[in-house]
Amino acid sequence: MKRNAVHGLSVPEFCSLIDKIKSLHESMCRDIRDSFKVTDACDVWIKGQVDRKLPFQEKHVMQQASILGNMEEHGVLKRFDMREKCDNEGLDDESKNDVPAVVEFGAGRGYLTQLLADCYGINRVFLVERKSYKLKADRSLRQKESLLLERLRIDIEDLNLQAVESLRGSPFLAIGKHLCGPATDLTLRCCLSERNINGDVQKCPIQGLAIATCCHHLCQWKHYINKKYFLNLGIKKEEFHAITWFTSWAVDADHGSDLSDVKDPRSHLPNIEKEEDGEDVTPVKDIIRKMEAVERAVLGFMCKQIIDIGRLMWLKERRLDAQLVKYVPPSISPENHLLIAKRET
């Protein structure tokens, strides 16, 4: 549907949209920095000193470790050694209050939480996932005596954190790795919705969040968290859907070589001459077909960043100290945007 809508644009409309994307990217996306952070806290996983029965791939470990490293650098996550805080009867009340609970959205098998539990000493975990998975990390997590684990099998859209009795009123961190498309927006809304904060973010129990976004081509206007941002830029629903479709091009090219030039993406975009009204024009789909893969990929990355900047601005409007960073090189994963935020003190 989105592709057909783009192909149905006139050449002047298509060119105008490309110009608008280039202009918005240049003015709004300058401060997205590279932030590949792997701390020594994750050495047990990085150096392969974990139970080899746990199924994992190195590239996923590097992504998970950098998410946690960025959380630590941003002050969202602290290191806790729960072995020093346990007595014979378990954790005391003071220790429980020191360490916030962690809610992992779109948890899948739960290996981001596994890394977090192994390296940072958390004691309460809630895994939110609508599907059932085999080879989950749950068995290993439940073997940790100081860790309380609860799975919430529910769609994020339907989740009300206030209704989770064991979490109600407790400070928590929200995390998610590769929350596809609208799942990122649904997670932000779930954590910071009006029913949770009653109009005052300082009363919200969330202490911080780290969400690795992905699959922007699946984003939907009805779920997007900051429609006002796009509308104020003169971008309506139809153009938003076109922008989301362009993001699928970001994963088309060879990320080990060509995309090193993404730092100056404008140099790769084609110069498309606008036709005057009334003349025969080349269909937009033919113009797209003639674009080089790297040209499409650069445009796709521009659109991804524009979408995520809107989410970043939404967090800042709620008085959170928030950043958008590239948490791994594209050679590890082209889906490398991380939204990270904490409550301002």
UniProtKB/TrEMBL annotation:
Molecular function per GO: tRNA 2'-O-methyltransferase activity; zinc ion binding
GO biological process, one term: tRNA methylation
Reaction catalysis annotation: cytidine(4) in tRNA(Pro) + S-adenosyl-L-methionine = 2'-O-methylcytidine(4) in tRNA(Pro) + S-adenosyl-L-homocysteine + H(+); cytidine(4) in tRNA(Gly)(GCC) + S-adenosyl-L-methionine = 2'-O-methylcytidine(4) in tRNA(Gly)(GCC) + S-adenosyl-L-homocysteine + H(+); adenosine(4) in tRNA(His) + S-adenosyl-L-methionine = 2'-O-methyladenosine(4) in tRNA(His) + S-adenosyl-L-homocysteine + H(+)
Signal peptide (residue range): none
Keywords: Metal-binding, Methyltransferase, S-adenosyl-L-methionine, Transferase, tRNA processing, Zinc, Zinc-finger
Described purpose of this protein according to its UniProt entry: tRNA methylase which 2'-O-methylates cytidine(4) in tRNA(Pro) and tRNA(Gly)(GCC), and adenosine(4) in tRNA(His).
The protein's name: tRNA:m(4)X modification enzyme TRM13
Family: Belongs to the methyltransferase TRM13 family.
Enzyme Commission numbers on file: 2.1.1.225
Classification via InterPro entries: Methyltransferase_TRM13 (IPR007871), SAM-dependent_MTases_sf (IPR029063), Trm13 (IPR039044)
Organism of provenance: Eucalyptus grandis (Flooded gum)
